[in-house]
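User: Good morning. I'm curious how iron/sulfur cluster would be positioned relative to this chain. Could you predict the structure with it bound?
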Amino acid sequence: MIPMLKISGANSFKIKDSLVLSRHSIVSEDANRQFQCDCACEGGLERNLAGFTVRQMLPESKPRKLAQLFSYNLEQKILYYNPQFDAGTVILDQTADVILQALDGESTLTELHKNILELDATANFEDVANLVRSFEFNGLATLDETKSSPRFAPLKKLGVWMHVTNQCNLRCTYCYLGKTSEQMSFETGQKVLLELFESAAKQGMSELSLKFAGGEALLEWDLAQALNSWARTEAARRGMLVESILLSNGTTITAERARQLKEHNFQVAISLDGLGTANDVQRPFINGRGSSRYVERGMLLLQEYGVPFNVSVVVTAQNLAHLPQLAEFLLNRVQPIPFTLSFFRDNPLAENGLTVDNPALIEGLRKLYAKIEEILASHAPTFSFLDTLLDRVQLSQPHQHACGAGVNYVVVKHTGEISTCQMLLHKPVGKIGEGKDLVQLIRAKGQNPLPAHQKEGCSSCQWRYVCAGGCPIVTLRTSGRYDTRSPYCDTYFTLIPEVLRLEALRLMRVAGI
Ligand code: SF4
Ligand code: SF4
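Assistant: Good morning! Here's the predicted structure, ligand included:
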């Protein structure tokens, strides 16, 4: 059977000039950077091994366009996105799209080529094969239907929250931590790390992602730095890797700290919720004064010393309306600053009135997205928006859980007690020195980390592998259940296409289209 090629009127049809644009087409250091969120969630660590190794295209190959593709018309192009694959947004021009639509799984490449020749007499078989190969590489088509749904590789990375101090110089309105002046001792940190290395190795993991946090981790910088250096030496001895992350409010960064952060290979997540008073009302110092200008000074120092960092924003009823100005400040600069948005997670210590309902969230975030689109007209950042603009939604690669809680994430309190999430520091599931395998401990005692396909409402959702049902603690606190969809589902479902659209626009601007 010969596939029908449908082209509209006056379009020129030259297969050699066709466009398939994805993040894989643009070489950039930033393109695949993983950004850190304020709550140290460890989502997106499960790699997709969907078997999409690009196979040889033979004359008798019968490629098929995948059924699960999301598509959207955008400025004479077509945006495609496969939520079960890790290519991100893929942009086709009309020529490439005509070919993709013709891949019906029944026609051979030879038949397809023959038909294309009627529209483009210069097309040779290799041109057609190359185009179909790039569809397969970007998760749009397959030669093997049995491998078109995601299969997840064993987890290789263990996320660790190292709660080096319980003190903080700020008093944020939404903070879940009961602050004290206690801190972790070096000996406790060392014992924890040893147990974590042992446990990770037993579970077949080869990397520790160490998040030094608190409280304000920079108040215990010497300890964090010493533990980090020790962990890196120990990891090298064991043939393992360490990724070093510092979560900070940014107020105490000096030139010397920035230099040391760079020297010791730290990535930093800086909390900032808005410009000026928009930040200060929810992130004041203990004495009530605003913190924003100190944070801005800290960010400039990190940029000056070349420390990779992103801003982590908590979205509340207080700052939602001010997010467009923050985006303008962060993105409209010579070196744009990436930022991630996390929705406020209610907790017993937070002030009242910070939660935003879905209609208000959707409206507020749409205003932010409109501002980002306006900025993109003149200025396209090289970092991706796929994992940053919609709370726990991570569009860069499929994953089964919204975060690593109860899966591959261990929270260590300054006392050596172990929890499954930093919001559950007050509910430890064990302690170091008890002879227990820490990863097994959080898996056995953690509260039911259900994958999205087992959650009510999510199991057949097209976004289950990118949203994964949202933060399980928020869901539990709102509905009393873990096994159901997020209370923010309406926001996720409505806005995922809009984030994909922004990312596609960004890619097109970066590529000069
Ligand atoms: S349970 Fe929620 S707050 Fe805790 S790590 Fe996961 S997403 Fe973050
Ligand atoms: S929370 Fe909603 S958007 Fe997310 S996977 Fe579940 S049903 Fe889909």
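The pocket of iron/sulfur cluster (ligand 1) is lined by residues 39, 41, 345, 392, 402-403, 405, 421, 423, 471-473 (CB under 6 Å). Residues 489-510 form the longest helix (22 residues).
Let me know if you'd like a different ligand tried.
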